[in-house]
Amino acid sequence: MPALDTLPTPSGGDDIYNVFSVNFARLDRRAPQNFMMADVHDGPMPLDYNFWIAHNDNRTILIDTGFGPRAAGERKRTLIVDPIEALRTLGLDPDAIEDVFITHLHYDHAGNMDRLAKARFHIQDSEVAMATGRCMCEKFMRAPYDVEDIVTLVRHNFAGRLCFYDGTAAPLPGISLHHLPGHTAGIQAIRVNTQRGPILLASDVSHYYANFVRKSPFVIILDVADSLQSYDAMYDLVAGVDHIIPGHDPLIRALYPSVTVCGLEMAALHETPMPLDSQRLA
C-alpha cells in the first residue's frame, strides 16, 4: 500500500471500522518459553507487543494502551515507539480519545491510562476485582501487573471513568466484547465489524496462533481449563482462524497487508490476510 498522511476510513455505516495493529515493542524468546508444555522444537519465537486502533468517520477506539517508557525501563523492554506518541504521529489527539477497551490489566496492555485525559475505559468486573483483590498479595500472581497502572485505574474509577461489564456486551455500534477467561480472570476479546466481516481481537486469550490452533496454552496462565474452553469459544464468534487476531504473534505482520500512515507502519487487519497455512500457524 502507498504511504498515507491520514488514517483511511471504510465506506459503509457507523458500525464498520478499519482496524490497525500497532507493534510498539518486541522481545526475543525461544519457542519452549511460550508454551506450558515444552513439546515444540527449540528455536526463535519472538513476542510482539501490540495495541489496536478501530477507526471510522465517526469515532476512533483504542483496544489496549500498551506500556510507556517507565515500564519499559523497569522490565528491560525496548520500545519501538511510545504508544501515546504513536497516536500523535497518526494525527490523533490522545486527549480526544473517548473510548478505550482494556482487554486485561497486565502491564503490557494497561499502561498509559494516565495519559488519556478524557477516555472512558471499558473493562470486565472480574478483571478489576482480581487486580485489586487478595490475589495481589502473592508475588507470583502480581508479577504481570504494574502497581502504578492499577492505582491509575482506581483513580479513574473514583472519577467515574470506568465502564464495567459482566460478560458479553455491545457498547458501541459494530463493537462487542466477550469474556474469555483463562489467561486472567477477566480477560475479554473485542469483536469489531469490518468490511470483510467481524474480526476478533483476541489479545492474550491466545498469545500466538499456535496456542489456540494446537490447544497448547501460553506459559503465563491463571486457569488452564478456562483457557482451553476460551480457545473453542473464539471459533463461535467469527468466520474462522483468519478472523482471529492473537495478541503477540509476529505472524500478524507477515500475514496482513501493511499500511504506513505519517511514517508509522501498521498491519491492516480489516484487509484479507495471506492464506493461513496450518503448518505455519502450528
List keywords for this structure.
282 residues; alpha/beta; 9-stranded mixed beta sheet; 14 strands; globular
Give a description of the structure.
The structure is a single chain. With 282 residues, the chain is of the alpha/beta class. It has a single domain (18-270), classed as 4-Layer Sandwich (Metallo-beta-lactamase, Chain A). The protein is 22% helix and 26% strand. The chain has helices at 69-74, 83-89, 125-131, 139-142, 147-158, 209-213, 224-235, 251-255, 278-281; strands at 18-27, 47-55, 60-63, 78-79, 99-101, 120-124, 162-165, 169-172, 175-179, 188-194, 197-203, 244-246, 258-261, 264-268. The protein is globular.
What fraction, in percent, of the residue positions are helical?
10-25%
Question: What is the CATH homology-level superfamily?
Answer: Ribonuclease Z/Hydroxyacylglutathione hydrolase-like
Distance between the termini: 29 Å
**Contiguous uncertain segments of 5+ residues:** none
Number of strands: 14
Radius of gyration (CA) equals 17 Å
CATH topology name, in short, is: Metallo-beta-lactamase, Chain A
**Total number of helices:** 9
Explain the layout of strands and helices.
Layout: E1 18-27, E2 47-55, E3 60-63, H1 69-74, E4 78-79, H2 83-89, E5 99-101, E6 120-124, H3 125-131, H4 139-142, H5 147-158, E7 162-165, E8 169-172, E9 175-179, E10 188-194, E11 197-203, H6 209-213, H7 224-235, E12 244-246, H8 251-255, E13 258-261, E14 264-268, H9 278-281
Parallel strand pairs: 3-5, 5-6, 6-7, 11-12
Antiparallel strand pairs: 1-2, 1-4, 1-14, 2-3, 8-9, 9-10, 10-11, 13-14
